[in-house]
Amino acid sequence: MIHIVIDLEMNPVKKVLKDIRKFLLDEVIEFGAVKLDENYRQVDTFQCYVQPTFCTISSHITKLTGITDEMVADKEKFPEAFKKFFDWIGTWDMKIYSWSNSDINQLRDECKFKMPEYNIGRLEQRWQDLQKAFDDRIGLHSSLALKHAIGAMNRDFEGIQHTALADAANTAAILALLQDDEEFFRVMQPVIDLLKPKELSQSIGNLFP
After folding, report:
1. Residue 199 predicted with pLDDT over 50
2. Contacts by residues 107-116 (CB-CB < 8 Å, ≥ 24 positions apart)
3. pLDDT for 60-87, tens place per residue?
4. Which of 75, 97, 105, 170 could make a disulfide contact with 49, Cβ separation 3.0–4.6 Å?
5. Euclidean distance between CA atoms 157 and 205, whole angstroms
6. What's the pLDDT at 110?
7. Any residues with CB less than 8 A from the CB of 116 and at least 6 apart, and which?
8. 3-state SS assignment for residue 108
9. Whole-prediction pTM
């Protein structure tokens, strides 16, 4: 079995397109993914930009991700990019992970709207919210941002935040750490200690600004 860690960057559908927004609030504009073997070692990566169908890239998204209209102008649209992503995976003998469920929710909405013949349920069955798994493991009752989770591991964020492949690669590092209980609790002990009731006056955000 292989393990796929994915991250998507998205662009909002403009509010004036009310008929579209009844079904689809955002469109995928970048896929980034890391493939790990059965021992959670990286063996391959995937990245592609996607041309949105309904809107140009908003200035906010360009500022956040660095993605511009010029970068996606000649790229494939969602159905073709989605197929390319699955061709890269190459098997259904896999599990797939993301930081929160926002990515699988996006794929569900976009596939339903643009690829109604596709059965997204088969993918959902193999999906895991790694953010929740991480938060549950350390006893955190709120969602920790990816950059703070990396900081809690005493690691620097590798690459540029909000680029799909860098986010996926950093999420993959967390997935690998979660497989070794002894190492996980050794690395995370300062954070776990911080979460003890007598010390809750501090916050994760203060510890890892």
Report:
1. no
2. 107/8, 107/28, 107/82, 109/23, 109/24, 109/25, 109/26, 110/24, 110/26, 110/27, 110/28, 110/78, 111/82, 112/23, 113/23, 113/24, 114/53, 114/77, 114/78, 114/79, 115/78, 115/79, 115/82
3. 999 999 999 999 999 999 999 999 999 9
4. 75
5. 15
6. 97
7. none
8. helix
9. 0.90
**3-state SS assignment for residue 57:** coil
Residue with tokens 């662009």: 11
95: part of which helix (H) or strand (E)? strand 94-98
Which amino acid, residue 97?
Y
Residue 115: name the closest of 90, 80, 85, 87 by CA.
80
**Which of 113, 104, 98 shows the shortest CA–CA distance to 25?**
113
- The rounded distance, in Å, linking the Cα atoms of 131 and 105 is 15
